[in-house]
Write the structure tokens for this entry.
Amino acid sequence: MLHTLMKSPFDTNISLIVSMLKKSDDFLALQDGVLIALKNNIFLKSIILSSAKLYIIKEDVYARGIHKHISSEFVLISYIHFVSLTLKHKKQMTW
């Protein structure tokens, strides 16, 4: 399953998301959701400890000027790669 976080992690139930993530899942943060990848934020450890693969949209990271503060556990991808993830996963959940 592809889980996409579009809202700030501060406006989302991150504990619920993490509890639903499986090893075969991909997690993608975009728009304000990219804030979850900031180093030293309160949500980072729990999302990293999930077994899902972690991605963030690089255009959204750069638009917010936070590219120097992103955890290396996340893979920066383009919107083109986002399309590939949607094709890979028939089931998707948007947060």
